[in-house]
């Protein structure tokens, strides 16, 4: 799993950035919010997500997406789980609204705000709210309740399970269980508890 890329910004547009590191140039698709935060920087670290798609031709295509922070990447992958929502639509949402605005709109069922984004009609807005309200609400409550140290250990534990082949939902559920068992546990202990619970 490619977690992030850190390197020199070779070129930057509102939709793409090329990062050079280790003699290689990586083209990453970005949101407008990430572009704004990269503007005037010469070096950066972007959290990444590899999106695989199979167009009509049948050949699998891979696109690399980059995000300035983990929060934006997390929301990107969460919204991709909604039926009928593709990567291009999710990127447009995250370019038109901040991650916080999207979460708030979903939690308060503010479909009108989501519909202001090009390509998001009433049905799509309602689907986003219906499928994500409980999931986002639960994630927000768990983050609010966690201390910075707990949050870091939790994130690292989830990343470790993803590296071991777990799906994101399964990894987050297992780590949530581990956090309830030992709230002050470090990353290693959380991973062990999560593996034991899901084994």
For the structure shown, list the relevant keywords:
globular; about 200 residues; OB fold (Dihydrolipoamide Acetyltransferase, E2P); alpha+beta; DNA polymerase, domain 1; 5-stranded antiparallel β-sheet; 5 strands; Helicase, Ruva Protein, domain 3
General shape: globular
**CATH fold assignment of the largest domain:** DNA polymerase, domain 1
Residue windows where pLDDT falls under 50 for at least 5 positions: none
Count the DSSP helices. 9
Which CATH first-tier class of the largest domain would you pick?
Answer: Mainly Alpha
- Rg on CA atoms, Å: 18 Å
Helices and strands, in order, run as EEEHEEHHHHHHHH
Structure description:
54% of the residues lie in helices and 20% in strands. The protein is built from 9 helices and 5 strands. It has 199 residues and is α+β, with helices and mostly antiparallel strands. The longest helix has 24 residues, at 122-145. β4 (43-53) and β5 (61-67) form a beta hairpin. It has 3 domains: 1-68, OB fold (Dihydrolipoamide Acetyltransferase, E2P) (Beta Barrel); 71-145, DNA polymerase, domain 1 (Orthogonal Bundle), CATH 1.10.150.20; 148-198, Orthogonal Bundle (Helicase, Ruva Protein, domain 3). The chain has a 5-stranded antiparallel beta sheet, with helices on both faces. The protein has helices at residues 32-38, 70-80, 87-96, 99-107, 111-115, 122-145, 148-163, 168-181, 187-198; strands at residues 4-12, 16-21, 24-29, 43-53, 61-67.
